[in-house]
Write the structure tokens for this entry.
Amino acid sequence: MILPVFLYGQPVLRKEAEEVPSDYPELKQLIANMYDTMYQAEGVGLAAPQVGLSLRMFVIDADVLGEDYPECQGFKKVMINPEIIESSEDEITLEEGCLSLPGVHEKVSRAKQIRIKYLDQDLKEVEEEIAGFAARVVQHEYEHLEGHVFIDNVSAIRRQLNKGKLNNIIKGSARCSYRTKAVGK
């Protein structure tokens, strides 16, 4: 089922998400719905807060980026209750966008490599190192669980330059090819 993507200005996007309990009802269905929603919106990652659920969970399928970023080939994951336990000091700055901030793109610095611990879709604990663009995608989605969005990582001047776009998103006048839920809608 395609879920609406909550847009910038929705309070759920600014709230620190709660851990997913091991007995969460219909977890597999939620995962399937999140993937369906992400694919329909042509995204590579989607966090639960982006579909209105304050849960520490996200889905990623970055395979479509594999031609430009080989580390993304076959990179399809569900991360439940993730915890980034280590980040490299080396960073790389690249442009990002977000399904919750349609039409907004900015350069963001992120760690080149991370070590993360999480539960997979079968609730098995996984710990792994992730590098390159795949690490960027994970860090972007992880931020949603902390109540942050990528625009928080840019300078005040760059945020100011995007103020009109951000206000339009809040007002519900952003155009999207996917189902959304704006503030007050």
Notes: The CA atoms of residues 91 and 110 lie 5 Å apart. Residues 5-181 form a domain with the Peptide Deformylase fold (CATH 3.90.45.10).
